[in-house]
Amino acid sequence: MRNFAVPTKDQVAPVNQTIFDNLNKALGFVPNLYATIAYSNNGLSRYLDYQNAKTTLSNKEKEAVNLIVSQVNGCIYCLSAHTTIGKMNGFTDEQLLDIRKGSSANPKLNALVGLAESIAKNRGNADAILVEEFFNQGYTNENLVDLILQISDKTAMNYLHNLTKVPVDFPLAVEI
Question: What is the DSSP letter of 58?
């Protein structure tokens, strides 16, 4: 299998060099998976625009989706990154592990996690009961569209890491 080295700032296009500088200012480093996206001259800016677009999902809801989708797809990089980000958004270690196992004590978040897991496992299809529970918990058609977009965002990053296996530069998530 090809070895994918993480590109350095001087190995990427000038537009990506500027993004690397901005990421360094905002995060203190350039995450290896973002750097890997910079192999594409346009990929990193395109991805960051998509990732940072407005959504009806809260940051906690987005992190819950990111975790369950990364668990389904077996992506240790994204599990590690989103465990860290999940803690920054107020989740406890126990809550993060529960989400990765497909559940939450919060009924609304539980419905979101359950549906996201079903969609990810079934490649865009889902159990009708989970869809109904999602709507019964107060989610809307707009939320459903935003959920699917969030799943697609995380699936793309899961696939990128699962193929490239670039080093994880976050504290490693525990295995479950």
Answer: -
Short-list 93, 63, 97, 65, CA closest to 81:
63
At 2 the pLDDT is 83
The answer to pTM > 0.85 is yes
Q: How far apart are CA 16 and CA 21, in angstroms?
A: 9
Structure tokens at 129: 């009961």
Domains along the chain with CATH numbers: 9-51 (no CATH), 59-164 (1.20.1290.10)
